[in-house]
Amino acid sequence: MQTVAILSLKGGVGKTTVTLGLASAALKRGLRTLVVDLDPQCNATAALDPAATRTTVADVLADPRRSVVAGAITASAWGAGVDVLTGSEATEAFNDPDPGSRRLNRLAGALAELGKLVDHGETPYRLVLLDCPPSLGRLTRSALVAADGALLVTEPSLFAVSGVQRAAEAVEAERAEHNPKLKALGVVVNRVKPRLTEHEFRVAELRETFGGLVLDPVLPERVAVQQAQGACAPLHQVRTAGGRELGAAFDTLLGHVLPVSP
């Protein structure tokens, strides 16, 4: 099981779009995936349109027992292969800035229960995607403590470099203090407008600063994202030119997150 935290310390850059795009690519590859919605805005939960659950991620953070975790997970509307650990606005109460090590480890403890929840003959999760809020409180830090790797999401804006730098420093801090297996998997540049000079300049600036950490391809701004999310459907089901372009881009990015086994 590969667990990936998807984060940005700046709102509005399309962090949840990247989470959902990777889940769609994983579904296409036949990889059983769990999306954990840690953002109190619950956008990932809304786009995946799961059935109501007995508990939510807020309950899991309060009490990570196996029964509580099981009650918070359900199938998404995308069909078999993508499940959701459902979000809740109540999660905001768990976003304190200085939670202490014991509380930071609750999410990791909850995810450790996943293997014990698999029924006989059922395929275990191959990929767990942690959709973080755009802040560095307990929720994002808990995700970094629980994750094997982190994807940093940005857009080609004036403040992109400083935002990525702060996120990279947060990853390194949690790796050093709580999670030595954690590594930065790369920087995803989202909402790029091709042939826009300002965007080309900002992408080049990111590459100059972070080198190979900036992943290819960058993600172009396409209306297919809104079409997929509005229909509560995987991006790969949008059959427009933009949908195919983004679908191929996420297939490639998934290879960075979860390489195909030889």
Order of helices and strands: EHEHHHEEHHHEHEHEHHH
Query: How much of the sequence is in beta strands?
Result: 5-15%
Largest sheet: 7 strands, mixed
Number of contiguous helices: 12
What is the CA-atom radius of gyration, in angstroms? 17 Å
Give the beta-strand count.
7
Q: What is the arithmetic mean of pLDDT?
A: 91
Backbone structural class: alpha/beta
What is the CA-CA span between the terminal residues?
Answer: 17 Å
Low-confidence stretches: none
Q: What can you tell me about this protein's structure?
A:
The mean pLDDT is 91. The protein is built from 12 helices and 7 strands. A 7-stranded mixed beta sheet has the order 3-4-2-5-1-6-7, with helices on both faces. It starts with a strand and ends in a 5-residue tail after the last helix. Helix 6 packs across helix 8 (138-146). The protein is globular and about 50 Å long. By secondary structure, it is an alpha/beta fold.
